[in-house]
Inverse folding.
């Protein structure tokens, strides 16, 4: 079974850091690009960041550029999101998503999400 | 990076067909055949229902179909069923190797 399991969310003060992890299983991890997508509860979806299979392409939404860093470990089948200088407006569910093979534009499989709350 | 424009809500009766529009610009929808659509039921994780404008993933009902004309993509649901009541989001690849979502559309089955 294809599965993505996020961890690392929690309550953090503004300006602090948090690292999200996503454990992938049930598919050949290094065949696929991966993305992080977030959703404020009750609101819409926002693409946060993407990384292709070999980390050759790494991209960010403008609202996280310079603060967040996406990375992956193909040997361990893990995706990460290092979030620095967190803001109140970063509060959201963060989903780890898998792309369709050979593409960098589709969220084929979603994890259950991990909640990040930024508050003083 | 402005969000793609979707109607806030649409409605239809069982058995009818409805269409949800997704309007972008020449920097995203208009330039790439890379629009995807997601269905999200309350409290659930989003589910891919259409990708690359017209392609349906394995296991997704053929009642869902996609199209595009100019800067506007569309999702059509035919033979509306009660279980189709959900939020629907479009997403497009955009210049600069980014991805942009629409604001979402709430579908009500009357």
């Amino acid at each position: 079974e294809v599965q993505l399991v996020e961890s690392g969310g929690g309550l953090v003060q503004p300006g602090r850091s948090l690292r999200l992890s996503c454990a992938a299983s049930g598919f050949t991890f290094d065949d696929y690009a991966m993305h992080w997508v977030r959703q404020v509860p009750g609101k819409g979806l926002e693409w946060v960041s993407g990384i292709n299979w070999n980390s050759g392409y790494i991209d960010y939404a403008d609202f996280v550029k310079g603060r967040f860093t996406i990375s992956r470990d193909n040997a361990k089948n893990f995706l990460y999101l290092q979030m620095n200088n967190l803001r109140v407006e970063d509060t959201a569910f963060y989903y780890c998503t898998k792309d369709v093979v050979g593409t960098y534009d589709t969220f084929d499989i979603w994890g259950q999400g991990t909640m990040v709350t930024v508050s003083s | 990076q402005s969000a793609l424009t979707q109607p806030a809500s649409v409605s239809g009766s069982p058995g009818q067909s409805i269409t949800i529009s997704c309007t972008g610009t020449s920097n995203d929808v208009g330039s790439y055949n890379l629009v995807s659509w997601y269905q999200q039921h309350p409290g659930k994780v989003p589910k891919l229902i259409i990708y690359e404008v017209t392609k349906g993933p394995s296991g997704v009902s053929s009642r869902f179909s996609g199209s595009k004309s100019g800067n506007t993509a569309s999702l059509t649901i035919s033979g509306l069923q009660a279980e189709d009541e959900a939020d629907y989001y479009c997403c497009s690849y955009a210049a600069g190797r980014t991805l942009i979502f629409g604001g979402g559309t709430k579908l009500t089955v009357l």
